[in-house]
Amino acid sequence: MAKAKETEVNKSLTYDDQVIKKIVGLATAEVDGIQPLNSSFMENVTDKITGADENTVGIDAEVGQKQVALDLNVVCRYGVDVAKAFDEVVKKATEAVKKMTGLDVIELNMHVENILGEDEFNERYKKEKE
């Protein structure tokens, strides 16, 4: 019996930058005392036009076919060990991107835009804990 020849399928899987930004934004928000930068009024208007949301504000992503480079602008709560939190952001973001997309994060830069007192931070970034 002759073996059937398999046909090569030309295929491609790509991700919009917004998808990667959202994954990274959600992963970053899981780190205690760190939040992606909140949007201003003008960014809210732009976001409505471009389809961005609050989880992608302050995050830039360069997405290639196999790799991603990220720049994050964040707000920190006063008293947080920022270096330790940064390590956790890197770990969570790279793991989430790899798990969900198969892409490797080859660069992640985090810029701290602001430090807020505990009360102000908690008021702005209330997390429901149930």
Notes on the protein architecture:
The protein has one domain: Alpha-Beta Plaits, CATH 3.30.70. Strands 1, 2, 3 and 4 form a four-stranded mixed sheet that branches. The protein has 130 residues and is an alpha+beta fold. Helix 1 packs across helix 3. The protein contains four helices and four strands, in the order H-E-H-E-E-H-E-H. About 7% of the residues have low confidence. It is elongated and about 75 Å long.
Summary?
With 130 residues, the chain is α+β, with helices and mostly antiparallel strands.
Which key terms come to mind for this protein?
4 helices; Alpha-Beta Plaits; four-stranded mixed beta sheet; Asp23; Alkaline shock family protein YloU; 130 residues; alpha+beta
Outline the fold blueprint.
Blueprint: H1 17-29, E1 34-36, H2 41-50, E2 59-63, E3 67-77, H3 82-101, E4 104-116, H4 118-124
Parallel strand pairs: 3-4
Antiparallel strand pairs: 1-3, 2-3
Helix pairs in contact: 1-3
Protein name: Alkaline shock family protein YloU
Family: Belongs to the asp23 family.
Pfam families: Asp23
First-residue to last-residue Cα separation = 63 Å
* Number of E-state strands: 4
Quickly count the helices. Answer: 4
Which series of helices and strands comes N to C? Answer: HEHEEHEH
Instruction: Give the assembly state of these chains.
Output: single chain
Structural class: alpha+beta
* Domain tally: 1
How big is the Rg? 18 Å
